[in-house]
Amino acid sequence: MSLVERDLKVIWHPYTQMQTALPPVPIVRGEGACLYDENGKKYIDAVSSWWVNIHGHAHPYIAQKVSEQLKKLEHVIFAGFTHEGAVELAERLLKILPPNQQKAFYSDDGSTAVEVAVKMCLQYWHNKGEKRTKILAFNNAYHGDTFGAMAVSGRSAFTAAFDSLLFEVEFIDLPNEGNIQDLKSQISNLKSHLACFIFEPLVQGSGGMLMYEAKYLNELMTHCRQEGILMIADEVFTGFGRTGKPFACDHVTEQPDIMCFSKGLTGGTMALGLTTCTQHIYDTFLSNDRLKTLFHGHSFTANPVACSAALASLDLFLEDSTLENIKRIEESHRQFALKIKDHSKIKTTRQTGTILAMEWETGSNTSYFSSLRDTLYQYFLAAGIILRPLGNIIYILPPYCITNEELAYIYAKIEQALEEI
Ligand SMILES: *Cc1c(COP(=O)(O)O)cnc(C)c1O
Fold it and tell me: Do residues 309 and 179 share a domain?
């Protein structure tokens, strides 16, 4: 039996309608920005394997560090115990985050990093004896698939089966020049109930690579600060260079109270989540009263092997060549966007840092719209490129080590698709 046949007998894949989905592609190895299947066919990973990979696949330096760690210490309970990797990673990350970030709480992935952040905010008010239980979020937000993370995400087809069970969240539109004053007064009207405001800074990934300007985010943050509303910046997707700066919050002057990280944190090598917060939030949990404890933890909290992958990834991230690569991709995307933006099949293009999104014209035909996504996906897969459109939106966000030749090949295939589809 082939690997694919064995897979279909036992596996249920994520975000996949198993009845109609085409069989999965059996990948056997990765190198640089590329993945190779059983038959040796090469695929350029233009979506960084669901946005996690930043330095390329099977990076030898990360592999070496992980393997050294595995032989020394694979895991230890993190309540009552500690280890070098967890401490060093927190020390080094806090140094490059906004200076008000002072404490690090580990978890397993992006969703759990968000769960921890939301629980910190809700319990912050609980510990202070104030009843503030509502959360403010953006329409079309995506913060993860566990229940709390789903609750603070926009209501959509993804959440429909659970909507009646999700806790109450106030949703506002992304800010722009026209609505910023109105958004501020909406927030002021709600403020006495609001525990926190959670947002994806600058780019809403799953929402369709929707982008908004740093200056309006900054204005909203300043307003929340004045109104005493805690702020959670969910940098699970935008962290580690995606937006052209190390973190999306580096584009604003206001500092969030809490930040969430995962995806690029380990260079895409292993699952690891991290929530950082201010000294002030941390201090609100200090007490002789045990009930003020943050009762949260996962079996694999601060797993030493995952921490070693994150430390190795951080070494690579801080090399000059990585920043140069990010700048190179930014510039290359900009040139390509200019070239295709007036094509009759392109509705709009938008770019933030290494993320380039192109909205395909769909006309008014909605059935065409729903099949377009699959057509595009298959078209690029056949051409040896992994692009996973979100509806009619194609986006490229490659590992930073992608070569100019590989980028040029992706662009050429998109131009060809514009003519052929
Ligand atoms: C992917 C994502 C998450 C969820 O992370 P998982 O590791 O998939 O649980 C949360 N927030 C944002 C902004 C994301 O893009």
Answer: yes
Question: Which of 317, 341, 367 is a domain's end point?
Answer: 317
254 with 212, same domain: the answer is yes
Pocket of ligand 1 (CB under 6 A): 109-111, 114, 142-144, 200, 205-206, 234, 236-237, 262
Q: How remote is the CA of residue 114 from the centroid of ligand 1, in Å?
A: 8
**Do 143 and 29 share a structural domain?**
no
How many domains, in total, are found in the chain? 2
Q: Give the chain's length.
A: 421
Per-residue pLDDT averaged across 99-103, rounded? Answer: 98
232, HSE (Cβ side, Cα atoms, 13 Å): 31
**Residue 230 gets which letter from DSSP?**
E
- For the question of residue 263 being annotated catalytic, the response is yes
Q: To test ligand 1's pocket by mutation, which of 48, 142, 270 has the most ligand atoms within 8 angstroms of CB?
A: 142
Mean pLDDT of 324-329: 98
- What's the CA gap between 53 and 45, in Å, rounded? 9
pTM: 0.97
Q: Are residues 121 and 229 in the same domain?
A: yes
The pLDDT-based confidence of 371 (bands split at 50, 70, 90) is confident
CATH of the domain at 22: 3.90.1150.10
Given ligand 1 and candidates 48, 143, 395, which is best to mutate, with the most ligand atoms within 8 Å of its CB?
143
Residue finishing a domain among 302, 317, 332? 317
Whole domain around residue 142: which residue ranges?
Answer: 64-317
Cα 235 to middle of ligand 1, angstroms: 9
Nearest CA to ligand 1 atom 7: 110
234 part of the active site: yes
Q: Indicate if the alpha-carbon torsion angle 395, 273, 141, 101 is positive or negative.
A: negative
Q: What is the pLDDT of residue 1?
A: 92
In angstroms, what CA-CA distances link 221 with 175, 215, 276, 320? Answer: 11, 10, 17, 31
pLDDT confidence tier of residue 16, bands split at 50, 70 and 90 = very high
